[in-house]
Amino acid sequence: MSDVLKLKYKPLIGQTIPDLESFAESQGEKPFRGRQLFDWIYRQQVDDVSAMTDLSKPFREKLANVPIHPLKMITEDVSVSKQTQKILFELLDGNLLESVLMKEGNRITICLSTQVGCAVDCDFCATAKMGFIKNLTTGEIVDQFLQLQKMSEQKITNVVFMGMGEPFLNYKNSIAAADLLHHSKGINMAAWRITISTAGVVPKIRQFSEEQQPYKLAVSLNGTTQNQRLKTMPITETHSFSNLIKASKDYAYNSRNRITFEYVLMDGINDQPKDAEQLIQLLGSIECKLNMIPYNEIGDVYRRPSDEKIEAFMKSLKRAPFPVTVRWSKGTDIDAGCGQLVTSST
Ligand code: SF4
Fold it and tell me: Among the atoms of ligand 1, which is closest to the Cα of residue 198?
C-alpha cells in the first residue's frame, strides 16, 4: 500500500461519528458504514481492516489505503518496580511525544500528552526545556489511549491529561479527545475518570466551568503567594495567583465538582510550615483535594525534600478541612515522573 496514497487521508483515529459518516459517503458508501467504523475503532478497538467483517469487501479494500493510527510506537521503558511504563511515540510529521502508564493494583492510570513541548515554561519541568513545538490533534491524543490500552493486560481505569504540554492551550483538541474517550458508543470511559490538569490558564478554567464540562479539573498550584509562585511558574505573571484561586473557587462552587490542586513540593522553595499554613487558609473554603507531589529531580536547580521534610509538611496539613494525598512517583528511574517528560527529534 502506497504511503503517498495514505497521506491523502486523515487517520481514522480522532474522527467523530459525523466525520466518519461523511468519510463513508465520500467513498460512495452509506453513512451507517461510518457508524460501523466508529464502533470498530473505538468500542471494539480493532485496527485491522480485514477483521472488520461487517463492512463490505470493496469498502475494506478502499480502507486499506487509509491510515488508522496517527502515532507509531517507537520504544517502551519499564521502571524497575514494573509499575510504570513510558512510551515514546512518533507522529506522522516525525515529532516525538511521550505517554506514561502506571499500575497500582486494579487501578491503571495513563498520563496523556496534549502538545509536543510546552510554552508555559515552568522552571522545574523537563518538557518546558523543549519550548513549544506543536499542538497535538484530537487523534494524536486519543491514539495514545488506544495504543496503551492495546499493550496493557488490564483495562485502563483512569486518564489524566498531565503529560507533555498545557491542555488548556490546546483546549479544543483536548476537550474533543476527552469527548471521544467518554463517548458512550465508543470507549465509554466515565467522565469522572478523566482529569484535565492546567498550570493555571484562567480564562480557560472559566470556559471549562461555563461549558459545564463533565471532566475532572486539576490545577497545578505549586506556590502559596503571587511572588513565590512566580519564581517557578512564569504563567503567574499573565494569570495572577489571586485570579487563579478565584476561578478555581468559582469552578468548584458552580460545578459542585471537587477540584484537585497539585502541589509539587520542592526543597526550600515551597516546603516550609508557613506554606502548609497558607494552603489551609487559601483552600479551606474550597471543595477540593490537595495532591502533594515530591519533586522529581531533572537537573541541579531544584531538589526533592527529604522524606522527613515531606512527612513534616504533611503533618502540618493534618488539620486541613480537605483531603491531602501524596503521590510518590514510581517511574522516576525511567524519567516518567511528573514533569520529567521530554523528547528530542534529533
Ligand atoms: S509543568 Fe506542565 S505546563 Fe508547566 S512547562 Fe511543564 S508541561 Fe508545561
Answer: 3
Which burial class, exposed, middle or buried, applies to 307 when counting CB atoms under 10 A from its CB (0-12, 13-18, 19+)?
exposed
Distance (Å, rounded) from C-alpha 160 to C-alpha 66? 29
Residue 109 CA to ligand 1 center (angstroms) comes to: 19
Query: Model-level pTM?
Result: 0.94
The answer, yes or no, to whether any atom of ligand 1 lies below 6 A from the CB of 117, is: no
Query: For the domain 71-334, what is the CATH superfamily, name and number?
Result: Aldolase class I (3.20.20.70)
Residues 80-102 have a mean pLDDT of: 93
* The CATH number fitting domain 3-63, selected from 1.25.40.10, 1.10.150.530, 1.10.760.10, 3.40.50.1110: 1.10.150.530
- Residues carrying CATH 1.10.150.530, the chain: 3-63
Active site amino acids: 98, 338
**What does the pLDDT look like over 216-252, one tens digit per residue?**
999 999 999 999 999 999 999 999 999 999 999 999 9
Phi, psi values for residue 111, rounded to 5°: -110, 115
